[in-house]
Amino acid sequence: KNIGYFFLNKIYNDLGIEIFLNRVKSDSKIEYDLNGITKLLVFDRILHPSSKKKAFENRGDYLFPITTCDDIHHVYKALDILDKKAKSIQMRMNTKIKQSSIGRDTSLTYYDVTNYYFETMYGDDDTYVLDENGEARLDKKGNPIILEKGIRKKGISKENRKEPIVQMGLFIDNNGLPVSYKLFPGNTQDKTTFKDVLETDVEDMNLGRIVVVADNGMNTQENKYLIMEQGNGYIVSKSVKKSWSKLRAWAQDEDEYTYIRNRSGEVTFKYKSRINEIKLTYKKPDGTRDTKIVKEKEIIYWSKKHYDKEVYQNQKFIEYLESCKENPDKLKDKQRKSQEFISVVDIDKKTGEIVKTDKLVVFLDEKLEKYKETMGFYSIVTSEIESDDQEVINKYHGLSRIEDSFRIIKSDLEGRPIHVWTKEHINAHFLICFIALTIIRIIQYKVLKSEGKNTLNVDGWEQGITAKKIKEGLNQLQAEKLPQEYFKVSRINEE
C-alpha cells in the first residue's frame, strides 16, 4: 500500500488545513470525517487524479486509513462545506506560508486567467430578480436584473473547446507558490476578472505592497488605476501590433538601444525605455469618474530568437494566404486571423446581368508589411520607473511560472474536464486543485533549495523535480505490513 502520501500529509498539516477543518467540524456539529475526506480528495488529485467517486472507492490504497468515512454521500456533503470555507482556507494557507521557512515573497505577484471545460453541451442559466408576478425585474435600460450568473457558460476557450467553460483567475507569489484563486462564469472577459480578485481576495490576504505582473489582457486603465490606488505597482505587457502606429518611429530608431551580441558580433537582443505621463480613468459604482496622472516606464525590446520563431511561424501563414487566392473557400479555416490582411470581393466575369460571381482575394500589402515589421518586438509598461530595464524584462518573463501552474492543474492534476455540476461542487473541486498545486510547488521549492539551485530562476521550477516525477516517485513508495507490526518498504527510487 502507498506510503508516499506521508510527504503530502506533512505539508497538508503544515498549511494549517487539518486544524482549521476540525474546528469547522466541531463548531458545526458535523458527524462525518470532514478533514479526512478533504485529505483523501487532495492526495488522490496528486497521486492518481480521478473522480470524487473513484477517490472514495480507492481509499483503501493507503497503508494507514486517511479517512473514517464509509458513505459516498458524505463526500458530496464535504464539498458543500469546502465551497463555503474556500476563501477562509486560502487565507489560512497564506498565513501558514508567511510563517514558514519559505515565507511569502510578494515583491512580485503574478496574475493570469485560464479556463476549464465540462463534458456537456449545456451551460447554466442566469437567475433573475423577480417581481410580485414572478416576472423578471428590468433595469433602467430594460434589461433583466441578474440575481446570480450561471457559472458554466460558453466563452472563448483557451483550448478551442466548444463545451461550456468556467474562468479561473490565479495569483502566485515570487516563489511560485499560489496565493489565491477565484472562479468566474465562462463568458467573463479576462480583463474584468482582475478588479474582483484584487478588491475582494488579495487585499484580504494582507500581503503588503505588491507588484502585479500580468499579460496584455490585464493592461487596462481601470486595472492600473486600482493597483496604483492601493499603493501597489504593476508590470504588464503592451500589444506591439495594436500600438505599432504609435511605437513604429521610436522602435525603428536605433538611438539609445542597449545591444546584446553573440560571439560573432551579431545583435541577439536590444532594448530601450522612455518615461511617459499617462492618465488613468476609473468609473466608480455611482457612475462618476476619477482620474489619476501617473508616470509610467515603457520598454521596447527585440529578440532575434523570437524574431526567427515568428518568421518561421508566419511563413506558413503567409503561404496559406497565398493559397487562398486560388481557393477562397479556404479562408473559413482561419477567418478571424486572415481578415486583417486580405479583402474578399465578388466579381462578375461577364457584363450585364449577374449570372454567377466569383470571389477574388485581394492582399492588403501595407498592413502585411506593418505586421512583418513588428516581428521580434515586445513592449512592457511598468509603474516601477526606477527599476532597471533588463530587470523589468526578466521579471515579466517570470510570468511563465503561472502558465506552468495552469499546465500542472490541467495535465498533472487532471483538473479538466470537470465532472461535478453544481456551482458549490465546482468551486470545491478547484479548491482541492489549489491545495494540491500548493503542495506540489512547496515540494519543488524544497527540492531546488536542497540542490542549491536558484528558486527564483525564471525556468527553475521544472529543473528541481517535475510534477510528473513527484507523482511517479510518491506512487512507487509503498510498504507491505508484516506480522508483529513490521513493515517491508519498497525500493526507494531517485525521486
Please write out the topology.
Layout: H1 5-14, H2 17-28, H3 34-47, H4 52-57, H5 72-84, H6 86-99, E1 109-117, E2 127-128, E3 146-148, E4 165-173, E5 178-185, H7 190-202, E6 211-214, H8 221-229, E7 233-238, H9 240-252, E8 258-261, E9 267-283, E10 289-303, H10 304-326, H11 335-338, E11 342-347, E12 358-363, H12 365-373, E13 377-382, H13 389-397, H14 400-412, H15 423-450, H16 461-464, H17 467-476, E14 479-482, E15 486-489
Parallel strand pairs: 1-6, 6-7
Antiparallel strand pairs: 1-4, 2-3, 4-5, 7-13, 8-9, 9-10, 10-13, 11-12, 14-15
Helix pairs in contact: 3-15, 5-15, 7-8
Task: Tell me what the structure shows.
The protein is of the alpha+beta class. It has helices at residues 5-14, 17-28, 34-47, 52-57, 72-84, 86-99, 190-202, 221-229, 240-252, 304-326, 335-338, 365-373, 389-397, 400-412, 423-450, 461-464, 467-476, and strands spanning 109-117, 127-128, 146-148, 165-173, 178-185, 211-214, 233-238, 258-261, 267-283, 289-303, 342-347, 358-363, 377-382, 479-482, 486-489. The chain has a nine-stranded mixed sheet, sandwiched between helices. Strands 2-3 form a two-stranded antiparallel ribbon. The longest helix has 28 residues, at 423-450. The radius of gyration is 27 Å and the shape is globular.
